[in-house]
Design a protein that fits this description.
By secondary structure, this protein is mainly α. It has nine helices and no strands.
């Protein structure tokens, strides 16, 4: 039994349409995951840096259990964290150089990101403090932070994130 050409075209069109929807849904999910990961990484920047500063020898001394249980795994996790944070620092330096070459608004975005995440200490700077410092509204600081996270994601994830921005017409 053969299907009529018109019915076959309709089936192909529907299947193609569904495939396109699923592809776009996956691309959006991947983009959301990368953005959430960038923000999560930045929110935990100080903790991760602190983790890198504790030497493996100190860890061994602190917890004898680690000597009996998976010390190699702990060492591997520590090494991966150190490598990740070295990469993040390198990308922050690259983003800073980019911001210096781009002008005041990009420089402000970089400084907002750095102040709210990287330089954060017990003396927490609030968005309103930064708004006062830069002479802008708090809303501008929030927009700057979101834009900076998006821009920094390009540094962390490269061309894959750039393609997301092109798809969203944000370039």
């Amino acid at each position: 039994m053969t299907l009529p050409k018109e019915l076959l075209r309709l089936i192909v069109k529907e299947v193609s349409s569904e495939f396109d929807k699923q592809t776009k849904k996956k691309q959006q999910h991947d983009r959301d995951w990368r953005l959430r990961n960038t923000q999560y990484l930045l929110k935990n920047y100080r903790k991760l840096k602190s983790h890198c500063e504790a030497s493996l020898a100190d860890i061994k001394q602190q917890d004898e259990i680690l000597l009996r249980v998976h010390i190699n795994s702990v060492a591997e996790y520590k090494l991966k964290t150190i490598e990740l944070m070295d990469y993040v620092d390198l990308m922050l330096d690259s983003y800073e150089r980019y911001s210096l070459a781009q002008g005041e608004s990009v420089q402000r975005r970089f400084k907002v990101l750095k102040e709210l995440y990287v330089n954060r200490s017990e003396n927490v700077r609030l968005q309103r403090d930064l708004a006062e410092e830069f002479g802008v509204e708090e809303r501008t600081i929030r927009r700057d932070l979101n834009k900076a996270i998006d821009e920094f994601s390009v540094y962390l994830f490269g061309a894959v994130h750039l393609a997301d921005l092109i798809d969203k017409d944000e370039l």
